[in-house]
Design a protein that fits this description.
Largest sheet: 7 strands, mixed
Number of strands: 11
Order of helices and strands: HEEEHEEHEHHHHEHEHEEHHHE
Shape: globular
Mean pLDDT: 85
Bound molecules: iron/sulfur cluster
Length: 358
């Protein structure tokens, strides 16, 4: 961890800090438990363990995909990164500086470096503001003059494929879903971020529009030298856009590695099952793994030991009592592959070999 921080601090240019082979963002031990209150005195009676001790890093210039079923904690994690909700534990380090009230980067700086695009393109836009003003709003708040902010908004509209002369004075309700999401991307870019968090940003779009927006994101990333965290439940989309993938289950990280390794040789039974469940018309792409049965257990009382043991076809006694752990993710090379499982489960069969790092 300290090695990572030292390497990050070595570079000077804010956009190049950390160099191409260094992590830009380090998340160390994030936890978020939401209290459940009940009774006349509104006492806390339980808590939802939405994110439970999650650590990972994001390399400068990469796209890190985050996948998992609904309720696995991926969107809560995104909101924690943006400080839209308060974390209960953990540290966030950006370019080697701790983000927080007491030291290092303050939240204003973090929010300029990190921007987020949400799934619901309509509710992210003010229905009373024309598109051009909506995009110019961020730069205006940051102190840009009306003229400069307007110019910036028009240039961003061109960058995301919207003609400012045609769309500048339209309102959100006059746009299609894909056009609204392009506006949201332009709004996120208006503050000159270095990392975009895309939370199910293309999930609500038609497939043809989804492909256009994905290509747009790829072009913008290259042109502006951005880094992405791409959250989605769609495994095809994540494979298309990501360099590395992390898989979450019930608030925890269960597998992480380069995208091709995860998709061609998934190690964790949950990842194997997720990949087996995806729709695929190509018989050569099919993964022979156990299907995913039943719903995830409640995050209020997660199962002891391995949280996946209630659904895992390879469960053994040790899984019910001892959490497998993932190892030191923060010392991982971006090319390494880790999975939190007591056993190795190659697709060809079962082995009792210990946990692995390939
Ligand atoms: Fe399955 Fe046990 Fe591995 Fe958990 S630790 S995924 S229950 S084999």
């Amino acid at each position: 961890m300290s090695d990572l921080m030292a390497a990050q601090k070595a570079a000077a240019d804010p956009r190049d800090r950390g160099g191409p082979a260094q992590p830009m963002l380090i998340v160390d031990g994030f936890k978020k438990y939401f209290p459940i209150r009940a009774g006349l005195l509104n006492r806390q009676v339980a808590e939802v363990k939405a994110v439970d001790d999650v650590s990972f890093f994001v390399m400068k210039g990469e796209t890190l995909g985050i996948v998992g079923e609904s309720g696995c904690g991926k969107s809560t994690l995104a909101r924690l990164l943006m400080h839209l909700i308060r974390k209960d534990a953990g540290q966030l380090i950006l370019d080697g500086d701790l983000v927080g009230e007491a030291s290092g980067i303050l939240l204003d700086g973090l929010r300029r470096s990190l921007q987020m695009v949400f799934q619901d393109s309509s509710s992210s836009l003010n229905p009373r503001l024309p598109i051009e003003q909506s995009i110019a709003y961020g730069p205006r708040v940051q102190g840009a003059s009306r003229q400069v902010a307007r110019q910036q908004a028009r240039s961003l509209m061109e960058k995301v494929g919207l003609n400012p002369n045609l769309f500048g004075q339209r309102y959100a309700h006059e746009l299609s879903g894909g056009q609204k999401q392009r506006v949201n991307i332009a709004r996120a870019l208006a503050l000159d971020p270095r990392l975009l968090i895309l939370d199910e940003a293309v999930s609500a779009l038609d497939k043809s529009v989804e492909a256009q927006v994905l290509n747009l994101l790829g072009d913008i990333k290259k042109e502006l030298r951005l880094t992405y965290i791409f959250i989605s439940h769609d495994l095809h989309v994540v494979r298309y856009i990501s360099d590395r993938v992390m898989v979450m289950y019930l608030g925890q990280l269960v597998e992480i590695g380069p995208v091709d390794t995860i998709y061609e040789d998934p190690k964790h039974p949950y990842t194997q099952a997720l990949l087996a469940c995806r729709l695929n018309m190509d018989p050569h792409e099919r993964v022979d793994a156990a299907p995913l049965a039943g719903d995830p257990p409640s995050p209020v009382i997660p199962p002891p030991g391995c949280r996946f043991h209630t659904r895992c076809p390879y469960v053994e006694d040790v899984c019910k009592t001892t959490s497998p752990g993932l190892g030191d993710v923060l010392r991982l090379s971006p090319k390494q592959h880790l999975a939190a499982c007591h056993m190795v489960h190659p697709r060809s069969g079962h082995s009792s070999a210990p946990a692995f790092a390939a």
